Amino acid sequence: MTLTVREFWTVFHGMLAGAIFLLAFSAGLVGLLNLKQNSVSPEGLRERLTRLTVQLWVMALIAWVTVLSGTYIVFPWYRARSPDSPRSALLDNPTKAGWDSFGMEWKEHVAWIAPILATAVAWLVARYGPQLAQRDEVRRAAIVLFCLAFLAAAIAGLFGTFINKAAPIY
User: How many distinct structural domains can be found in the chain?
Assistant: First the structure.
Protein backbone atom coordinates (compact mmCIF):
# COMPACT_ATOMS: atom_id res chain seq x y z
CA MET A 1 0.00 0.00 0.00
CA THR A 2 1.32 3.41 -0.92
CA LEU A 3 0.13 6.88 -0.08
CA THR A 4 0.34 9.95 -2.25
CA VAL A 5 1.94 13.02 -0.72
CA ARG A 6 -1.51 14.51 -0.18
CA GLU A 7 -2.82 11.34 1.45
CA PHE A 8 0.26 11.21 3.68
CA TRP A 9 -0.31 14.76 4.94
CA THR A 10 -4.01 14.10 5.44
CA VAL A 11 -3.17 11.02 7.53
CA PHE A 12 -0.45 12.92 9.43
CA HIS A 13 -2.80 15.81 10.17
CA GLY A 14 -5.82 13.83 11.30
CA MET A 15 -4.89 10.30 12.23
CA LEU A 16 -1.48 10.96 13.71
CA ALA A 17 -1.21 14.45 15.23
CA GLY A 18 -4.94 15.01 15.80
CA ALA A 19 -5.54 11.54 17.20
CA ILE A 20 -2.54 11.78 19.54
CA PHE A 21 -3.92 15.02 21.00
CA LEU A 22 -7.36 13.49 21.50
CA LEU A 23 -5.99 10.29 23.04
CA ALA A 24 -3.63 12.14 25.37
CA PHE A 25 -6.51 14.26 26.66
CA SER A 26 -7.62 11.62 29.18
CA ALA A 27 -4.17 11.53 30.78
CA GLY A 28 -4.07 15.32 31.02
CA LEU A 29 -7.57 15.45 32.49
CA VAL A 30 -6.74 12.81 35.10
CA GLY A 31 -3.59 14.76 35.95
CA LEU A 32 -5.59 17.94 36.50
CA LEU A 33 -8.30 16.17 38.49
CA ASN A 34 -5.73 14.54 40.78
CA LEU A 35 -4.11 17.80 41.88
CA LYS A 36 -5.79 17.96 45.26
CA GLN A 37 -3.92 18.98 48.36
CA ASN A 38 -5.29 16.27 50.61
CA SER A 39 -4.69 13.41 48.18
CA VAL A 40 -0.92 13.65 47.72
CA SER A 41 2.25 14.46 49.66
CA PRO A 42 4.31 17.56 48.80
CA GLU A 43 6.91 15.35 47.07
CA GLY A 44 4.18 13.53 45.15
CA LEU A 45 2.63 16.85 44.15
CA ARG A 46 5.94 18.09 42.74
CA GLU A 47 6.35 14.86 40.77
CA ARG A 48 2.80 15.04 39.41
CA LEU A 49 3.17 18.71 38.50
CA THR A 50 6.43 18.13 36.66
CA ARG A 51 4.91 15.29 34.65
CA LEU A 52 1.68 17.19 34.02
CA THR A 53 3.46 20.37 32.95
CA VAL A 54 5.60 18.52 30.39
CA GLN A 55 2.59 16.53 29.23
CA LEU A 56 0.43 19.62 28.73
CA TRP A 57 3.13 21.54 26.84
CA VAL A 58 3.67 18.55 24.55
CA MET A 59 -0.08 18.31 24.00
CA ALA A 60 -0.27 22.03 23.18
CA LEU A 61 2.58 21.61 20.70
CA ILE A 62 0.80 18.65 19.08
CA ALA A 63 -2.41 20.68 18.85
CA TRP A 64 -0.49 23.49 17.12
CA VAL A 65 1.14 21.02 14.71
CA THR A 66 -2.31 19.60 13.93
CA VAL A 67 -4.00 22.92 13.24
CA LEU A 68 -1.05 24.39 11.33
CA SER A 69 -0.61 21.30 9.13
CA GLY A 70 -4.34 21.31 8.43
CA THR A 71 -4.46 25.02 7.64
CA TYR A 72 -1.31 25.40 5.58
CA ILE A 73 -0.75 21.95 4.04
CA VAL A 74 -4.02 19.98 3.73
CA PHE A 75 -6.60 22.77 3.46
CA PRO A 76 -5.21 24.41 0.27
CA TRP A 77 -5.58 21.08 -1.55
CA TYR A 78 -9.15 20.81 -0.35
CA ARG A 79 -10.06 24.34 -1.42
CA ALA A 80 -8.16 24.32 -4.77
CA ARG A 81 -9.90 26.24 -7.54
CA SER A 82 -10.44 23.31 -9.85
CA PRO A 83 -13.52 21.33 -10.84
CA ASP A 84 -12.05 18.12 -9.39
CA SER A 85 -11.13 19.53 -5.95
CA PRO A 86 -12.77 17.96 -2.90
CA ARG A 87 -14.58 21.22 -2.18
CA SER A 88 -16.04 21.30 -5.69
CA ALA A 89 -17.14 17.68 -5.31
CA LEU A 90 -19.06 18.58 -2.14
CA LEU A 91 -20.59 21.78 -3.48
CA ASP A 92 -21.71 20.09 -6.73
CA ASN A 93 -23.77 17.60 -4.72
CA PRO A 94 -26.68 19.31 -2.93
CA THR A 95 -26.91 16.52 -0.34
CA LYS A 96 -23.23 16.98 0.60
CA ALA A 97 -22.87 20.77 0.32
CA GLY A 98 -23.50 21.17 4.07
CA TRP A 99 -20.25 19.36 4.79
CA ASP A 100 -18.46 22.33 3.23
CA SER A 101 -20.69 25.15 4.47
CA PHE A 102 -20.75 23.98 8.10
CA GLY A 103 -18.15 21.23 8.59
CA MET A 104 -15.25 22.96 6.89
CA GLU A 105 -16.15 26.30 8.45
CA TRP A 106 -15.84 24.60 11.84
CA LYS A 107 -12.52 23.08 10.88
CA GLU A 108 -11.24 26.37 9.40
CA HIS A 109 -12.16 28.58 12.33
CA VAL A 110 -13.33 26.86 15.50
CA ALA A 111 -10.62 24.19 15.44
CA TRP A 112 -8.07 26.95 16.18
CA ILE A 113 -9.58 27.19 19.65
CA ALA A 114 -8.09 23.79 20.60
CA PRO A 115 -4.38 24.76 20.51
CA ILE A 116 -5.09 28.18 21.99
CA LEU A 117 -6.90 26.67 24.98
CA ALA A 118 -4.40 23.81 25.33
CA THR A 119 -1.60 26.38 25.50
CA ALA A 120 -3.54 28.41 28.06
CA VAL A 121 -3.97 25.32 30.26
CA ALA A 122 -0.27 24.44 30.00
CA TRP A 123 0.58 28.03 30.97
CA LEU A 124 -1.84 27.94 33.94
CA VAL A 125 -0.27 24.74 35.28
CA ALA A 126 3.26 26.09 34.75
CA ARG A 127 2.36 29.47 36.30
CA TYR A 128 0.40 28.29 39.34
CA GLY A 129 2.18 24.99 39.94
CA PRO A 130 1.66 23.76 43.52
CA GLN A 131 -0.96 26.47 44.13
CA LEU A 132 -3.35 24.47 41.92
CA ALA A 133 -3.71 21.98 44.78
CA GLN A 134 -5.03 24.76 47.05
CA ARG A 135 -6.78 27.01 44.51
CA ASP A 136 -9.74 24.96 43.33
CA GLU A 137 -11.12 27.82 41.23
CA VAL A 138 -7.97 28.01 39.10
CA ARG A 139 -7.78 24.22 38.79
CA ARG A 140 -11.45 24.05 37.80
CA ALA A 141 -10.94 26.81 35.24
CA ALA A 142 -8.03 24.85 33.77
CA ILE A 143 -10.19 21.72 33.60
CA VAL A 144 -13.01 23.60 31.84
CA LEU A 145 -10.61 25.16 29.33
CA PHE A 146 -8.99 21.78 28.74
CA CYS A 147 -12.37 20.13 28.12
CA LEU A 148 -13.32 22.90 25.69
CA ALA A 149 -10.03 22.34 23.82
CA PHE A 150 -10.86 18.64 23.59
CA LEU A 151 -14.40 19.34 22.43
CA ALA A 152 -13.26 21.73 19.67
CA ALA A 153 -10.64 19.24 18.49
CA ALA A 154 -12.97 16.24 18.67
CA ILE A 155 -15.70 17.94 16.64
CA ALA A 156 -13.14 19.13 14.09
CA GLY A 157 -11.76 15.59 13.86
CA LEU A 158 -15.23 14.15 13.39
CA PHE A 159 -16.02 16.64 10.63
CA GLY A 160 -12.65 15.95 9.03
CA THR A 161 -13.33 12.22 8.98
CA PHE A 162 -16.75 12.64 7.38
CA ILE A 163 -15.58 15.27 4.90
CA ASN A 164 -12.60 13.16 3.84
CA LYS A 165 -14.94 10.18 3.40
CA ALA A 166 -17.35 12.23 1.25
CA ALA A 167 -14.65 14.03 -0.77
CA PRO A 168 -11.14 12.60 -0.24
CA ILE A 169 -7.97 14.51 -1.03
CA TYR A 170 -5.97 12.49 -3.58
Answer: 1
